[in-house]
């Protein structure tokens, strides 16, 4: 059975899988690549852009650095181990992402992974044991860390000896983003490009480049002896002049070529290009020979525009608007251009980071373990299957850690579900087959409900229906209160509580509750009937005496005096009140 922990830590996830099953190894490899399990990948297939922006820094690094990032690097080393081939060229030519492909790659897992997992589980179990010892000894409170025993430390040290520190670098995402900003400012905000040649009778020449593996189209702007690359209207900064115009599988090249030719022919006006590129592509660009050289003059383009109703007069009007936009956006474009030219002058920017580089898959697992422990992680173990559960600082992990530190059981999701199911099955079996168990269970439920109800009463404090007594020493006052409650709304007396709601508990002998109930009956005329029970709250035994509201016409005397409850006090019932009740009694007697 597969156990999945809530912590995305490769060393923990590897310790949980069945390494004799290629399917589970394939799932682990999928998780290393995607950062999520296959079923989670399917659920998030329709993930919105807003959700995608919620990436953690760890996930962003994995996406950005790919196989130079920790988790992807572990996948690469695992793949090499399973293939028994550590060649970079072999990896680049054979590695394919997919559950089925990973399952094929993992066929040899039984031969190479069990021993690695056995050692890892041994180390993780030792960390758990040392942590438990440390909670008893208290070394951690001193500010020192003690992770594992000497023999386990020696083994881990041997694995880490196969690791070296290195510096990694790649093209800067910042530079790429600044290029995107420049392109957006040019073709979306300012809607203009800078044309390389301004001669009125310039031509556009297309050349086909073929390097035996991929064909591309290079387009030039030519006038006399001068020749410059045609500016790409979609990416005027990031695309080198003359590139990005090939016939792609979705027709992207012809679209960009049509817009770029129109923009150049009109002096750099992207507004005209955006309005007419589709018609120009269909009428002119589509007739050009695919993947063959071509030549097109600016005069031909202007003639086509004229047929669309864009003659010299309209072109002049478009030109005036273009000039206004150039003036308006020049400060913004100049600032961006200056920044990007500085970047280019230093040869481009690089993103760099230091990282530990393991030699093989096993040492990579211990680098991950080292990083996890450095982050303050804890290694705990499931009470059901005995496999590790890592602490990651989340709300759920904090709850599990609190249980673990107090020696209470914690579980993986699946193990917890199975344990709960077994407990429920055992409970209902006992409830059906064992009468004594039913009686005891009903009693426990009743006491639990009563305890919760009493706790609410204690929070309310003394009042019309509630009174606190610290002990049975004031028994006579309690009897008067019960008599008063009966004449009002009924009520409850709680023994073992101070007036300030402090729970002190009460000493109960073998017959204390029975003796009190008898005292209430014997001290009242006619006799008062109460219910009295004992419960435990926070380890303190308390007694709860309750009486119902008397029926109409009932009149009770406690110690030869009738009392009635008014707020927090017991008051002697007035003669008028007694007459009313006596009249009610006589009326009922005549009726019967």
Describe this structure in words.
The protein is α+β, with helices and mostly antiparallel strands and about 600 residues long. The protein has three domains: about 10-160 and about 355-405, no CATH class; about 175-345, no CATH class; about 455-590, 2-Layer Sandwich (Methyltransferase, Cobalt-precorrin-4 Transmethylase, Domain 2). It has 23 helices and 16 strands. Strand 15 and strand 16 form a beta hairpin. The chain starts with 9 loop residues before the first helix and ends with a helix.
Q: Which stretches are low in confidence, meaning pLDDT under 50 for 5 or more residues running?
A: 1-7, 45-52
Please compute the radius of gyration using only Cα atoms. 42 Å
Strand content: 5-15%
Widest sheet, order of strands: 4-3-2-5
Average pLDDT works out at 86
Distance between the termini: 76 Å
What is the approximate shape? Answer: elongated
Query: How many strands, what sense, and barrel or not for the largest sheet?
Result: 4 strands, antiparallel
The overall strand count is 16
Overall number of structural domains: 3
Helix and strand layout, with pairings?
Layout: H1 10-16, H2 22-34, H3 38-43, H4 49-52, H5 57-65, H6 70-83, H7 88-94, H8 99-105, H9 109-112, H10 114-137, H11 150-160, E1 163-171, H12 173-190, E2 203-210, E3 215-223, E4 226-229, H13 252-265, H14 270-283, E5 294-297, H15 298-307, H16 312-345, E6 350-358, H17 361-374, E7 379-381, E8 388-390, H18 395-405, H19 413-433, H20 435-460, E9 466-469, H21 475-487, E10 491-495, H22 512-523, E11 524-525, E12 531-537, E13 540-547, E14 557-558, E15 563-566, E16 569-572, H23 575-591
Parallel strand pairs: 9-10
Antiparallel strand pairs: 1-6, 2-3, 2-5, 3-4, 7-8, 10-13, 11-14, 12-13, 15-16
Helix pairs in contact: 2-8, 6-17, 12-16, 13-14, 19-20
């Amino acid at each position: 059975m597969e156990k999945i922990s809530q912590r995305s830590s490769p060393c923990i996830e590897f310790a949980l899988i069945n390494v004799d099953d290629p399917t589970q190894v394939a799932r682990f490899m999928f998780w290393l690549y995607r950062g999520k399990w296959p079923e989670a990948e399917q659920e998030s297939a329709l993930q919105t852009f807003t959700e995608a922006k919620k990436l953690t820094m760890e996930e962003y690094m994995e996406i950005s650095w790919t196989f130079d990032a920790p988790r992807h690097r572990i996948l690469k080393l695992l793949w090499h181990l399973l293939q028994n081939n550590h060649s970079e060229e072999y990896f680049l030519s054979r590695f394919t992402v997919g559950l089925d492909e990973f399952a094929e790659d993992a066929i040899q897992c039984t031969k190479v992974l069990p021993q690695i997992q056995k050692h890892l589980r041994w180390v993780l179990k030792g960390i758990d044991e040392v942590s438990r010892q440390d909670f008893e000894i208290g070394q951690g409170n001193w500010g020192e860390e003690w992770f594992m025993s000497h023999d386990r430390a020696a083994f881990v040290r041997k694995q880490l000896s196969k690791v070296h520190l290195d510096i990694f670098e790649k093209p800067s995402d910042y530079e790429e983003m600044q290029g995107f900003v420049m392109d957006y400012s040019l073709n979306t905000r300012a809607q203009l490009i800078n044309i390389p040649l301004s001669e009125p009778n310039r031509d556009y020449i297309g050349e086909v480049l073929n390097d035996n593996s991929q064909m591309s189209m290079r387009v030039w702007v030519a006038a006399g002896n001068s020749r410059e690359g045609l500016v790409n209207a979609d990416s005027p900064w990031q695309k080198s002049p003359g590139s990005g115009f090939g016939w792609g599988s979705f027709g992207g090249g012809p679209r960009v070529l049509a817009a770029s030719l129109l923009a150049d022919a009109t002096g750099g006006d992207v507004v005209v290009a955006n309005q007419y590129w589709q018609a120009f592509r269909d009428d002119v660009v589509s007739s050009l020979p695919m993947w063959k050289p071509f030549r097109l003059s600016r005069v031909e383009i202007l003639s086509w525009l004229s047929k669309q109703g864009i003659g010299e007069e309209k072109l002049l009007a478009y030109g005036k608007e273009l000039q206004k936009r150039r003036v308006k956006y020049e400060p913004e474009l100049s600032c961006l251009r200056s920044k990007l030219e500085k970047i280019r002058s230093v040869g481009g920017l690089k993103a760099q980071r230091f990282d530990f580089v393991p030699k093989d898959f096993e040492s990579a697992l211990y680098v991950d373990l080292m990083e996890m422990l450095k982050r303050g992680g804890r290694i705990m173990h499931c009470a059901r299957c005995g496999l590790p559960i890592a602490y990651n600082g989340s709300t759920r992990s904090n709850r599990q850690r609190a249980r673990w530190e107090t020696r209470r059981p914690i579980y993986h999701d699946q193990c917890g579900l199975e344990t709960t199911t077994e407990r429920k099955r055992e409970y209902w079996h006992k409830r059906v087959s064992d009468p004594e168990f039913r009686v005891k269970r009903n009693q426990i439920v009743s006491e639990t409900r009563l305890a919760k109800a009493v706790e609410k009463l204690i929070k309310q404090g003394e009042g019309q229906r509630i009174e606190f007594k610290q002990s049975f020493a004031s028994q006579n006052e309690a009897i008067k209160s019960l008599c008063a409650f009966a004449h009002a709304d009924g009520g409850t007396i709680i023994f073992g509580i101070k007036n300030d709601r402090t729970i002190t508990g009460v000493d109960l002998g073998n017959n204390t509750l029975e003796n009190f109930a008898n005292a209430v009956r014997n001290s009242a005329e006619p006799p008062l009937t109460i219910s009295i029970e004992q419960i435990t709250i926070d380890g303190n035994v308390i007694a709860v005496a309750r009486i119902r509201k008397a029926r109409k016409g009932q009149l009770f005397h406690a110690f030869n005096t009738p009392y009635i409850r008014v707020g927090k006090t017991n008051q002697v019932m007035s003669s008028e009140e007694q007459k009313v009740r006596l009249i009610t009694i006589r009326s009922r007697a005549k009726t019967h």
